[in-house]
Amino acid sequence: MLILSWGQILALLLLFVRTAIVGLANSSCSGSPLSAQDCAALSSLSLHGHITFATATSPASSSDFGRIHRRLPRSILYPSSVRDIASLVRAVHDTSSPLRIAARGAGHSVAGQAQAGDGVVIEMGSLRGIKVSEGKPGEQPYVEAMGGELWIDVVRESLKYGLAPRSLTDYLFLSVGGTLSNAGVSGQAFRYGPQISNVLELEVVTGNGEIVRCSPVDHADLFFAVLGGLGQFGIITKAKINLERAPQKVKWIRALYSDFKAFTRDQELLIARPKDSPNSFDYVEGSVIVNNNHPSNEYKPIPFHGQTLNASLIPPSAGPVLYCLELTKNYDEDESATIDETVSSLLAPLGHVPSLVFSKDASYFEFLNRVHDGEIRLRKKGLWDVPHPWMNLLVPKSKIEEFDALVFREILRKGINGPLLVYPLDKMKWDSRTSVVMPDENIFYLVGMLRYATPSGVPSVNSLVDQNKEILRVCKSAGIHLKQYIPQLSSEEEWREHYGSSWSLFLRRKLAYDPKAILAPGQNIFAPSSSTLKLSSAL
Ligand code: FAD
């Protein structure tokens, strides 16, 4: 007689429940628009997580923060292990399936980059895990985070150990894999480079369905391909990111300029100061605001809560726009008595309007999570889940004044209905082996046009998209050789131009790691039947 232990009975029960779940997926697949072959392939996957086929009930997977593009996938995978992701990719790779696969992090793209029309979306957020390692004395601390984890949670977990990532984005409700697929920049990038310059190791599922751990010394080509690779070479399932000691507090400063030359001169001066210099700041950004004191206007974001901006102090010579330098100086509680004096002396030689400086003290977490307050405010007004025709550009330093004249003071002189960021970055802090492309000069400016369309529909989304195109056209004819950051391009020709001399490397890497062009179809780089890929693979 067969006698089963309690453990064996439990194992059998679990097996039964799992088979029942897979069976459920099978039956729901039969009504989906998948081909019989794809239906059979996806249904027979042995998963720790689950896969669904009733996509209309998961609108989030077909949409993004941009709310302009919307493509329905045929299936959605909620992985519970890296193997789930590898099994899916391998199933598509090993058959002649036309399905394409998009990893979706937080879905904060603005142009459908994380969508897979008629394909499979992998909801990366269902695979969680963050582990901080303080390191032995003298060793670099680091954090290991799954690709779908949000930076806000990475920060929260790291701060429990008095540590924090060195380079972050302004907004932290973005996924680790999503920002590492672009670059991840903010006001700390001048010192530490973008987030992709702060990665020690990755775990990746390639377009061939292989799980590979890679680093600057192990499978280095894949490591650098994936960083800034727009999801084209592999799905980041885990990232090991370096950490540094977190300060307890920051002095957070905003200083207003009426003169663009003085503004950029000071920004460039500040980013050139070494970390250990006593006169360095820890975060340097900037923005453009409309010079108009209409009650609904843009002076508002400059003073901190409880402070006011006296518009009569703005010099009469100021043009249609003003410039705001935003800085922080980190400090600990025991420096509280001297921090004001320190900051005053650092600000004294700068060229802002002397009386138009605002500052406040904040905890490090409050500062890092600063955009979330704005999100809460906009959500209350119904202005968060609206279309976002954003555009981000990298403009070479030698052309930023011309850009100011043509774009900030002309095309955008009435504002953009949202933050208009402008701050310099230092190419020396970017690893040239990654997939990101930058302008040719060592210093270039990030220009972020973070606009939102109002629910009234005026101006229309289309007119804002057209204005973005006009900016690109005007810059091109003025000979301003800029690059798009988080590019939105729609043909292979445009991508070829974007990558310029790096195109052949990009192509070689695509052939090595995703030769069937399965991954990240929403970037619109390679059509499934891309003749370039076919031709290149035949060579
Ligand atoms: P998704 O939109 O989910 O995906 C983006 C792309 O990456 C897609 O092609 C997707 O397929 C791919 N992808 C997603 N996860 C993975 C993965 N694990 N492995 C491989 N590929 C993957 N950017 C900055 O640099 N600095 C900022 O300060 C900044 N602030 C922002 C503020 C807001 C409010 C928003 C909406 C965006 C901001 N961004 C900023 C842009 C942001 O970095 C990118 O849009 C980023 O892609 C968003 O991450 P996500 O997780 O939402 O990516």
From TrEMBL:
**Does Heme appear among the keywords?**
no
Q: Which UniProt keywords apply?
A: FAD, Flavoprotein, Oxidoreductase, Signal
> What does UniProt give as the signal peptide span?
1-19
Q: Which cofactor does it need?
A: FAD
One molecular function GO term is: FAD binding
Q: Where does the FAD-binding PCMH-type domain start and stop, copy by copy?
A: 69-246
Q: What's one GO BP annotation on this UniProt entry?
A: cytokinin metabolic process
Q: Which InterPro entries match?
A: Cytok_DH_C_sf (IPR016170), Cytokinin_DH_FAD/cytokin-bd (IPR015345), FAD-bd_PCMH (IPR016166), FAD-bd_PCMH-like_sf (IPR036318), FAD-bd_PCMH_sub1 (IPR016167), FAD-bd_PCMH_sub2 (IPR016169), FAD-linked_Oxase-like_C (IPR016164), FAD-linked_Oxidoreductases_BP (IPR050432)
**EC no.?**
1.5.99.12
Family, according to the entry, reads as follows: Belongs to the oxygen-dependent FAD-linked oxidoreductase family.
What protein name does the entry list? cytokinin dehydrogenase
